[in-house]
Amino acid sequence: MSYFVIQVKTRGEDKYLRRAEEVLSGFDAKLVWPRRNLRIRRRGEWKDVVAPIFPSYLFLETEEVTPSLYEGFRRIPGFYRFLMSNDNIVPLSKEDKELLNHFLSFGEIVD
Fold first, then answer.
1. pTM to 2 decimals?
2. Measured over all CA atoms, what is the biggest interatomic distance in the chain, rounded to whole angstroms?
């Protein structure tokens, strides 16, 4: 399967994922949002947070983006575009796919 990239509103990835589950129900596709655990110091206090590895980007694993799948994603609030563009939706290159698979080999949340 190929990965396609969807750009969504920054810090709205989780909300978009929840809404996209309805769109994905009729398709052989899966949305992936790679994240990592971080320890951040704010105002002198340490906090553990889960942050996206690629902010604003979700990865759609499917063979192709059909017009009905595209329309379903486009109608969800927070959608910006598919990469390269909405008129020219292309899957990740071999090198980018290998990088994404490297992160996903640790699970969706990397420690």
1. 0.91
2. 50
